[in-house]
Amino acid sequence: MSLAETIEPTDGKRADGATDVAAVMLAIGKRARVASAALALASGEAKDRALCAAAAAIRADAERILAANAEDVAAVRAKGQRESLVDRLVLDPKRLEGIAAGLEAIAELPDPVGTVMAEWTRPNGLRIARKRVPLGVIGIIYESRPNVTVDAGGLCLKAGNAAILRGGSESFHSSRALVEAMHKGLRAAGLSEDAIQLVPTRDRAAVGELLRMAEYVDVIVPRGGRSLIERVQNESRVPVFAHLDGVCHVYVDAGADPDKAEAIAVNAKMRRTSVCGAAETLLVDRAVAAGLLPRIAAALADAGCALRGDAEARALVPSMEPATDADWSTEYLDAVISVAVVEGVGGAVAHINRWGSHHTDSIVTEDPAAAERFLNEVDSAIVLHNASTQFADGGEFGMGAEIGISTGRMHARGPVGAEQLTSFKYVVRGDGQTRP
User: Fold this and answer.
1) For the chain, what percentages of helix, strand and coil (3-state, to nearest 5) are there?
2) 190-237 per-position pLDDT tens digit
3) Across 239-290, where does the E strand assignment appear?
4) Which of 20, 71, 134, 320 has a Cα at 20 to 30 A from 125?
5) Domains and CATH numbers, the chain
6) How does pLDDT run across 116-168, given as a tens digit for each residue?
């Protein structure tokens, strides 16, 4: 069944022939609810078979998928988008293989559904177990990255949830081609295609409808810029897993190994500037700034990065542009980094907790006490010691993939993988007990 055929012919059309977005979204929600009930009871073997068949379909359909992606990329470039943002959209054979391999990695994970998290017996003989169950229907609203289409669909499937995907208009053709491959996987395993549905319109009104569908949607996962997240949090009648922007930091401590500090800072910023785990701010301990900051700044500049520094940083590296307050809270998603000199671990922690987005932050040091203080006091979803912030990724955490990095504190925090897409229920077994 093609994506266009996922909407019944009588659904979503007004008398004048235009699309009735509310009717389209209602039809999608109803089918997702039915599909989620069946998927919650599907065997782990069936879900894994669907994931592997979808991976095979992506490889078999590579030429068609890449052609669809080329259409999206050409349209975005024609609008004059900067290349760092175009990079988020681009698929090539290597990236497409990574997407397919990610589905196979998800299939290899243990099935979280039905897992007994804890069990105990009460003095009256009641046996109580807390067991993982799917969340139900998950709406994912995201921007340009087409890989999210597959990662989100695959993880929801693994956890027994139906997914409603509302991708960015920039990746419309790419996402449509990828979902069609996912549908081939579902059909091969005898599962309903309604388990993974892509909103078939670029109309922004579809987002508003999705946010109001509390009867059919159990959780919304937004993944994108601050404006998208704020809109979702302000308008949604459905619980939200927030994925705020990634204002990530690398702090170079007085106890840092200089070689590690340089390598980690450059990798954290420049490996891929367009990912949410890219470092946006470099902090350097005042005690070693004179010796280390010029070296790290030169390495970043040689890699093509522009630097914006505070007064102390610019005194040591005069070629830096001045940083403003806005820089400290900006997710550049480009080859730009802000730089500040701070007073030890305490200064770094204070800066990060004030200006950061509670996403991912790293300390470079050989001092165990400094590392532990940083890891304990920085209030972020992911904290690292002597490692690049670019490891902020569900695949790198062994989760196969992720829907996003949750920066909230309720239910899920950090990479949202299959396990985080489950809830739980209590199963109580007795032998005729009544309560006095």
Assistant:
1) 45, 20, 35
2) 999 999 999 999 898 999 999 999 999 999 998 877 788 888 889 999
3) 248-252, 279-285
4) 134
5) 3-243+416-427 (3.40.605.10), 248-396 (3.40.309.10)
6) 999 999 999 999 999 999 999 999 998 878 999 999 999 999 999 999 999 98
User: What amino acid occupies position 159?
Assistant: A
What pLDDT, on the 0 to 100 scale, is given for residue 2? 37
Kindly report, residue by residue over 27-40, the tens digit of the pLDDT: 999 999 999 999 99
The CA R_g of the chain, rounded to the nearest whole Å, is 24
Q: Is 297 helix (H, G, I), strand (E, B) or coil?
A: helix
Strand ranges for 97-194 from DSSP E? 116-121, 127-134, 137-142, 162-166
Residue 114 backbone class (left: φ over 0; alpha: ψ -120 to 50; beta: rest): left
Which tokens sit at 299? 């390495």
Q: What is the dihedral of CA 59, 65, 66, 69, to 10 degrees?
A: -150
Q: How far apart are CA 300 and CA 297, in angstroms?
A: 5
Torsion angle in degrees (nearest 10) through CA of 3, 150, 68, 1:
-20
Distance CA 76, CA 91 (A): 14
Length of the chain counted residue by residue = 436
